[in-house]
Amino acid sequence: MREQVITREVIANPKTKYGNGPASTRHFITQRLTGAINVLFVGLLVFIVVRLAGHDRAEMVGLIGNGFVGIPLAVLLAIVTVHMRNGMRDTLEDYFSGRTYGLYMMLNTMFCLAVGLVGVVSILKLVFWG
């Protein structure tokens, strides 16, 4: 079988099946959905920042330790890290390919996972254990 040369025309033609359709669609929907949820949660984040302006650590622990504030904040952090991973994936796809892309994507995933886990566990610790 003859290997197809990838040109601009090949990529622009939807009949060539260039790329992974289901994965690309999932990525597109995930990026748009997490972006929309982030916009909705901005009100909560603004409330927390305004409420804590000029207060000390005890006030911060008291506000974030409230389940009605802390649990949505933990959900927001989880969604933001998913959105961050997808956004960085787009950038990595533009500049890297092959094994280098795989390595950087793995590092990106690990970084986002670490940020998400540390942040969510920290917030939940404040909510459930003060």
Automatic annotation (TrEMBL):
Organism of this sequence: Devosia yakushimensis
Q: Output the superkingdom of the source species.
A: Bacteria
Q: What does the UniProt keyword field contain?
A: Electron transport, Heme, Iron, Membrane, Metal-binding, Transmembrane, Transmembrane helix, Transport, Tricarboxylic acid cycle
Magnesium is among the record's keywords: no
Q: In which pathway does it act?
A: Carbohydrate metabolism; tricarboxylic acid cycle
**Which cofactors is this protein said to need?**
heme
Its annotated compartments are: Membrane
The protein's name:
Succinate dehydrogenase hydrophobic membrane anchor subunit
SUPFAM superfamilies for this protein:
Fumarate reductase respiratory complex transmembrane subunits
Q: How does it sit in the membrane?
A: Multi-pass membrane protein
Its transmembrane ranges are 33-54, 60-82, 103-128
Principal place of residence: membrane
What is its quaternary makeup? Part of an enzyme complex containing four subunits: a flavoprotein, an iron-sulfur protein, plus two membrane-anchoring proteins, SdhC and SdhD.
Q: What does this protein do?
A: Membrane-anchoring subunit of succinate dehydrogenase (SDH).
